[in-house]
Design goal:
By secondary structure, the protein is α/β, with parallel strands linked by helices. It has twelve helices and 14 strands. Strands 11-10-9-8-5-4-3-14 form an eight-stranded parallel beta sheet, with helices on one face. The protein has a two-stranded antiparallel ribbon with strand order 1-2. Strands 6-7 form a two-stranded antiparallel sheet.
Length: 306
């Protein structure tokens, strides 16, 4: 699969990341088939979080991939911490360190390639985060660090104390959830698309060599459903299907190709456990939509150019 450099690092990563949030929906044999298929497709970047399945997803993954030293050398592991579901967000030093140790134990590995802070903690103390990151880096437990769902000023606040580069920012982005793109097109306009809800995070990440990792790339709203083959989006699906026919691929492939066409060099995180859908997502790495096709899809989603 085509690769990009992750943020400002020298780490080469596939342009499509495999999200493991739903791997606990598979039985043992199904999980093994899924992971093996991903590896065969060159999709060796696996995204986790300590809250996925209350930790069981990481355990299931480690068993499915038959984790050992030789396997570990050929995969890239990313996980996230900082959420106590239904209780609070916690970026305290103690929680970050304890969570990372638990993640490593469940994944049966000595280190993570990337650790992300999951959802902003209103009570974050940057100095505590810095202490945790320093300890994790010096011990060899984490090689690179990033964030999830953070705006530019939140990242700047962290950088006040944290010395390690922030190399990734996982953000909700899809064809139908593209405000971070639309507000850059509708500058100085008096319409809803001009509302800047994220502090120009897309431009910020490009300026600071932070890889944007779109999550829920097929969703509309906040987990309201997928837009592909959905009667709520007839014009969008018509446009996607026509372009998919041109390239002789599925609509799934085109939806991911739309994200990959953006010059920010994004790395979409796909969450489907369907093997054929996984293969369709990987095919997007070999397709470069034209400018006209990209804008056709953008407009078909209901976006009006000013």
């Amino acid at each position: 699969m085509r690769t990009i450099k992750l943020g400002s690092t020298a780490l080469e990563v596939p342009v499509v990341a495999v999200g493991c949030m739903r791997i606990n929906s598979l039985d043992k044999a199904g999980a093994e088939r899924f992971v093996q298929t991903a590896l065969e497709q060159g999709a060796n970047f696996f995204d986790h979080a300590d809250i996925y399945g209350a930790g069981t997803c990481e355990e299931i993954f480690a068993e499915a991939i038959h984790m050992n030293d030789s396997v570990r050398e050929n995969i890239i592991l990313q996980s996230k911490c900082g959420i106590k579901p239904g209780v609070m967000f916690d970026f305290s030093k103690e929680h970050i360190l304890a969570s990372t140790d638990a993640i490593l134990k469940r994944l049966k590995t000595d280190y993570l390639d990337i650790l992300l802070l999951h959802r902003p903690d209103a009570l974050v103390e940057p100095d505590e985060v810095a202490e945790a990151f320093d300890r994790l880096e010096s011990s060899g437990k984490v090689r690179h660090f990033g964030v999830s769902n953070q705006n530019p000023m939140q990242i700047e606040l962290l950088k006040k104390s944290v010395k390690q580069p922030i190399v990734a920012n996982q953000l909700q982005l899809s064809i139908t959830n593209a405000n971070m793109i639309s507000n850059g097109i509708n500058v100085n306009m008096e319409n809803s698309s001009a509302i800047n809800r994220d502090g120009s995070i897309l431009d910020y990440c490009r300026l600071h060599d932070i890889t944007v990792q779109p999550w829920s790339p097929f969703q509309y709203g906040f987990f309201e459903g997928v837009f592909l083959d959905n009667d709520k989006f007839p014009e969008l699906n018509k446009a996607i299907d026509a372009i998919a026919g041109k390239y002789d691929v599925s609509n799934t492939t085109i939806a991911i190709a739309w994200l990959l066409r953006h010059p920010a060099k994004m790395q979409p995180v796909i969450g489907s456990m369907n093997i054929e859908r996984l293969k369709d997502c990987v095919k997007a790495a070999d397709i470069t939509l034209t400018r006209e096709e990209w804008y056709e899809i953008y407009r078909a989603a209901g976006n009006i150019l000013p």
